[in-house]
Design a protein that fits this description.
Layout lengths: L1 H9 L3 H21 L9 H31 L8 H41 L7 H34 L2
Length: 166
Amino acid sequence: MSSLAVKLNRNWWVIPIMAFIVAEVTTLVMQTVTGPQLLGGIKPDLRKDIYSSLTGSSSGLLGFALAAVAILAAFAPKSETRGRDRRREQDLASARNDIAKCLLVTSVFLMTILVVSTVGIGADAGPKASLPISTVVVSAGFASLVGLLISGLGVTLSILERNSTA
């Protein structure tokens, strides 16, 4: 079990992907067994409004996530450090790279919400919701939430570590 935790610690970007898969399977099973749920159970006019809102929200968060990746990429380890401090700087740089990877995966899910919601505005206008569109939007929303929370936690821990002996 500890080897799994070590692998997960160095591959945070996998967590949003796993969250998407779990949410997609759960949503598909739930809608197949009990009928339309979440976006699938809403009236077409309200569904269009939600899709419109999701396009705006996801595009804003996508810009934020990509800006954070660019900022993280700009930080390099301090070159004047030696010995133990040099190792610490390299570890912090590695942590920033892990956070950037998680933000990039999260960006993919935010882009998925943006694109699928835009398609949903026009294609999901009937009285019965499109199962693929509604489940992908809900699952990508959950995955992007998980990714943003994990990335935010990573950035917070990185800042705290950086400032602990600075």
